[in-house]
Design brief:
alpha/beta
Length: 215
């Protein structure tokens, strides 16, 4: 069994790649950065999901579209167009078993940088399109939408006590998910799950449910 993971050199993508390796899968990583995983069943390609020629990968049971940027000026190109490009190349195949997109809570709340929120909203919409197209193969396609995740990408607010306190005041469970927890969700949605498709799962420690009732 083989899994392709984009954005596999750090953060959620690296955690996902390690999870599948630990479960006995062969994993192919694609990232603009060099490999940070050394494992006999891990193959790494340095490539930009938007700009570079994508590597030839003959077969993959699972595709995890994780590569992404934030407030970069390229958010729509990388997060949305890159996900479309890799999916059309590797995912729309009769032998595919599952495709998972890593979207964002901002896809439904809009509470992020404008281009980032738009790119992730597009990812969720595109996911539903793909789900319909691969359903005749018996394959599932879903997205997960994390809220805050404790990765290096978010160190700016994680390391600022004042900003962190404000974030926790808006988060009922008063914590963020780890990259490893999100990887568990990706594995569940793509491997354990057999019947859910065309759905987006919000994993935000209750932030979107926050409501202050004044009487």
């Amino acid at each position: 069994m083989k899994t392709i993971v984009t954005g596999s050199s750090s953060g959620i993508g690296k955690a996902v790649a390690l999870k599948f390796l630990n479960e006995g899968y062969d994993v192919v990583g694609i990232d603009i950065l060099p490999a940070t995983i050394s494992h006999p069943r891990y193959t790494h390609f340095v490539a930009d999901v938007v700009a570079d020629e994508l590597p030839d990968i003959e077969h993959a049971d699972i595709l995890v579209n994780n590569a992404g940027v934030q407030n970069s000026g390229r958010d729509i190109d990388v997060n949305l167009k890159g996900a479309i490009r890799t999916t059309e190349r590797y995912g729309i195949r009769p032998d595919v078993k599952s495709i998972v997109f890593v979207a964002s809570a901002s896809a439904s709340t809009g509470a992020e940088f404008p281009e980032y929120a738009a790119s992730k909203g597009g990812v969720v919409s595109y996911m539903k399109n793909v789900a319909l197209r691969i359903a005749p193969y018996g394959a599932t396609c879903n997205s997960i939408s994390p809220g805050g995740v404790t990765t290096a990408l978010n160190k700016r607010v994680m390391d600022d006590p004042e900003l962190w306190a404000q974030i926790m005041d808006e988060t009922p469970l008063r914590k963020w998910a780890s990259a490893e927890e999100i990887a568990e969700w990706v594995y569940f949605v793509s491997v354990v799950n057999k019947s859910m498709t065309a759905q987006d799962i919000l994993i935000d420690n209750g932030e979107a449910a926050r409501a202050k009732f004044v009487w």
